Amino acid sequence: MRAAVYEGSGQVAVRDVELPVPGEGEVLVRVASNTICGTDLRIASGAKSKGVRVPVVLGHESAGVVERVGRGVDRVRVGDHVGVAPSVVCGTCDMCRRGAANLCRTAQVLGHDLDGGLAEHMLVSARAVAGGNLVVAAPEVPFEQVSLAEPLSCVLHAQRLYRVDVDDVVLVVGGGAIGLMHAQLARVAGARTVVVSEPVASRRALATRLGVDVVVDPVHEDLPAIMADLTDGVGADVVVLCIGVPALVDQALAGARHRGRVNFFAGFPKDRLSEVDPNRIHYGELTVTGSSNSTVDDHRAAVRLVERGRVDVGSLVTHSFGLDEIDQALVAAASPEAVKVVVRPGS
Ligand SMILES: [Zn+2]
Ligand SMILES: [Zn+2]
Q1: Domains of the chain, each with CATH number or no CATH
Q2: pLDDT under 70 in the chain at which residues?
């Protein structure tokens, strides 16, 4: 079969690899769609090497059809449409035991240290199958939307931590795919006003089409003044930072009202510090959360949200490529005009 293989030092090649045969408890998925995310770009360029095996088939936002099942598999059947949760967790470490398997100490991840979905087929291990990593989706849902349940599951996981209450004003900083998922999910949770701040015009236009209440160009408009107007000067109930720029951390804290919640969704560059005024947290009684990854329960819930059209992930897809066009797909994914790039290994 054909696969996009990361070969180390910034090299990705599409080449023939052996078609895996599912053993006991394992499942072979014919991949229909794999969407690209920033993590793939960091792996492909060599910027991220921790937890990355060389060589490895890239891709962790995958969806497809169950093609073969090994002996003893009863969770899925041949022909099922499935989304694949990429983190294969141990179930026994301290974090797994306290219900935070997204932070599993020994997780293996598809497209990082397990072969992922940028291939015509992917083998899902017995541990992953038993752990519920294959989520069956309604067959009428387009595959790229099932793929996008993966990033949506991470956004949902974060929202469960930072919480959106009915009638909240929510500020999402960064209007790429992730920011637009937070914005839509805030709506689902009952927010009164959702604000997205995004410097790229095409993304602002998409935010508007998706029904975001207030879309702000932070370069040419005065975001703090707009937020003050919307909140009688007290600030947002929730601020979600979807851009990993350390200088924005204190601004995010400054944008929240007293008792507000601030979530650092984006990761930050390694070893960089950020200067904050800690009194914003102290006197404002702010709740500050991080969030990382998601659990298979989040993934299942995300697939349900997509199936029911509660979150429009289809509109986030701006580019589509075949597997042999992986180089163009990675270039497109890095461009500011791209929101989500899908690769269709079957096409
Ligand atoms: Zn991703
Ligand atoms: Zn664990």
Answers
A1: 2-148+313-344 (3.90.180.10), 153-290 (3.40.50.720)
A2: 347
